[in-house]
Amino acid sequence: MRWAARVAGVMVFGAAIAALAAGFSGQVSPVLSGVLGTGVGALMIHNDRLRVRIRARSAQLERANQRLRAEIGVRKAAESALEASEKRTHDILSTLPMPVIVKDAQSRIVLMNHAAEEKWGVPFARAGGTAGHQWIPPARMLEVLDEDRAVFAARKVVVSESQVRNDANGRVVEVEAYKRPVFDVQGAPHSLICVYVDITQRKQAEDALQRSFLQLRALTAELEMLKEEDRRRIAQGIHDELGQNLLALKIDVEMLHARASDRHPRLKRRVGHVLDTIDATIRSVRMIMNDLHPSTLELGLPVALEWLVEQFEKRSGIRCTLKVAGAHAPMTDTRRTSVIFRIVQEALVHVLSHAQASRVDVTLAGGHEQLSITIADDGGGIGCGDEAAQRMRAIRERVDVFGGDLGIECVEAGGTRLSILIPNETGETAA
Fold this sequence. Notes:
Elements: H1 2-23, H2 30-95, E1 100-104, E2 109-112, H3 114-120, H4 124-127, H5 138-154, E3 158-165, E4 172-183, E5 189-198, H6 200-259, H7 265-292, H8 301-316, E6 319-326, H9 334-355, E7 359-366, E8 370-377, H10 386-391, H11 393-401, E9 405-410, E10 416-423
Helix pairs in contact: 1-2, 6-7, 6-9, 6-11, 8-9, 9-11
Protein name: PAS domain-containing protein
Keywords: Coiled coil, Kinase, Transferase, Two-component regulatory system
Pfam family, one: PAS_4
């Protein structure tokens, strides 16, 4: 505009001079007329130059205006595409059956699908722009904010379990939350995508399974205790009835053998054979009684295991040692002592059957909270795979009765180490 005003002014000024020169041409001298003509020519040249510069400047402005219009068109197209993309995203999220919530860097809700509205019992119109202070209890709200900050700090998807209370009906459900942080180009927190999966039924099934497992463990424990009680009762019956009868029979036969004179050598020999048979029968009865319920169990677990180790070494020919460490408080439940005794006995049977060992070391270590039993051999080992696990199933079932733990370790130098941990009666969690 300033260029146009200057050109117009020059043109008016030139036209005025030209008219003045024409009007006074007859009255001025030729010299002055020539000067005026020269000035008019210079003004016309300057006017032409101004016209050229104006056209060039106008062309530049036109091109800049075209570029600006093009940029505005691109921006409008981008805004339209963004709006369409956000609408498609919102439509997709709205059709998802699982709750989805999008938060900003300050944990304020910026997007919430229909499933989330139903699960939380809060419409997006009420939840949008807030962190949830209106319907989430203060203590839980602090936990949610801490979890969101932890997700941004981890810079990866974080999975966690929590409870959600429906604000409309007060119903509490268990959910598994998948939170993924989103960062801007500068790496600063931008938003948080939260996807929730309802795991209430799964939790209920897990609780039911846990209750069933505890009931099964209690039943197994009761069966083991009843079996040990039956063994003890049968052993006691054998001792009281069969043992007493055999002892009386032996006394009578010994008296008969003593009264048989040398005049009846054949009778004396026959009576001697009968005595040998009665002694063998008494030894067999005692062995059966000890197999059913060793009398040493009444003296405590360490004494019973010492007897077991001696019997194992005597019968198998395998060198067997027992090491007792720590404090061993007497067990008030003798049936519990019997079951632990059977665990060690079963383990030694497996060593004899599968390990092909020349030495077995048994360690009994007591503590305030648990009892540790280790059985190590130097043979080929009973294995550490599925086959060994199958062989150890009976032992594992007995260990599970007390909520204990069974571990099998293959030693590089050869052999196997069986580790058993059983909680004490005061710290027991089983049954």
